[in-house]
Amino acid sequence: MKRKIKVLFVYKGEGKNKINPVIDAQISSLQNDSLEIIKFPIKTKGIKSYFKCAFLLRKYSLNHNFDIVHAHYSYCGFISIVAKKPIICSLMGSDIFRQNTLIILATKFFSRFVWKATIVKSKEMSLKIKNSNIIPNGVNRNIFKPLDKDKARAKVGFQNKYNILFVANNPKSHVKNLALAEDAIKKLDNKKIKLNILSKVKQNELVHYYNAADLLLLTSLTEGSPNVVKEAIACNCPVVSTDVGDVKEIVGDIENCYVTGFSTNQVWSKIKKSMTDKQVKINHLIENYDSVKISKKIIDLYKKTLNNN
Question: What is the pTM assigned to this prediction?
């Protein structure tokens, strides 16, 4: 039997159990007969704490066997050098945009001279990081699909209101820009509207929220390729999103999905317009983000990297 490729995933986790729903979803889509994913989640509080994580990673690498490191986020890519294995680094968006010049220069240096391959999530990101591979995060369409709206509302406990979702692993993060979403909702001045803020919800539960909701609202300052937008559309949930990452490409001309600017008035007007329109009908564009197709691209990159090493 052919030996499995062992890939060490180095990434930042949140909370006591170091959870990262996006990474967990990618791991689930990648596991197969030829691939074994080993998790190395880290919990950090600022850039200095990454040095401690580097020590732990070095210790782990001396006592465990793996073939390649797949780091997620630039800082994880920086410290992964201690593992002394080929590194593929997935940049997330916020590690390229709205970063100080020194970090951006370091990211470009590592991408060119240290990492064997760099993954970016959108064309916008590829303009910053040359010779990178554009591979957005995929959507598991076996999970994220249309369900009966009334049953979904009953399951998640939504009352008879216009329910807007705000989904983020860390909603209080400056990048997620929750204040803009809250200001836009206040401007609507409608007691029948409720902003539902969701964090760290498992995928098999999140699908019910998308199907129960009337709108997904994303007001981030930066993103790579936001999965919440793709997941919502796969569930026929309308979307209003700021113009970040590849949202324009994802949304395309999908009915009742709107890209907006960063002012309260712009967000408010798009929400108001969406409230008068129909439910989304899945567009063929979402097929490009199917997790099966995305996983194949990542696995091919692993094989190419190891063959060239």
Answer: 0.85
Strands 133-134 and 5-12, sheet pairing: unpaired
As a whole number of angstroms, the distance between CA 259 and CA 243 comes to 6
In 44-143, which ranges are E strands? Answer: 68-72, 87-90, 117-120, 133-134
- Give every strand in the sheet of 35-42, ordered side by side: 35-42, 5-12, 68-72, 87-90, 117-120, 133-134
Residue 88: beta bridge partners? 70, 117
What is the 8-class DSSP label of residue 287? G
Using DSSP's 3-state secondary structure scheme, residue 131 falls into: coil
Q: Which residues contact 26 (CB under 8 A, 6 or more apart)?
A: 137, 138, 291, 295, 298
Q: Where do the DSSP E strands lie in 131-261? A: 133-134, 162-167, 193-198, 215-218, 239-242, 257-260
Q: Which neighbouring-strand residues pair with 162?
A: 193
DSSP state of 289: G
Beta strands in 114-157, from DSSP E residues, in sequence order? 117-120, 133-134
> Using CA atoms, how far apart are residues 292 and 3, in angstroms rounded to an integer?
22
> Distances from the Cα of 131 to the Cαs of 119, 165, 278, in angstroms?
9, 36, 41
Q: Would you give the end-to-end CA distance of the chain in angstroms? A: 23
The candidate with the shortest Cα–Cα distance to 85, out of 117, 53, 129, 112, is 117
Q: What is the residue whose two structure tokens read 């909603």?
A: 171
Return the closest-CA partner of residue 227 out of 119, 144, 301: 144
pLDDT digits (tens, 9 = 90+) for 116-149: 999 999 888 898 898 999 999 899 989 999 999 9
**204-222 pLDDT per residue, tens:** 899 999 999 999 999 999 8
How many Cα neighbours within 13 Å face the side chain of 47?
Answer: 9
The per-residue b/e assignment along 116-149, b for 16 or more CB within 10 angstroms, e otherwise, is bbbbbbbebbbeebeebbebbbbbbbebbebbeb
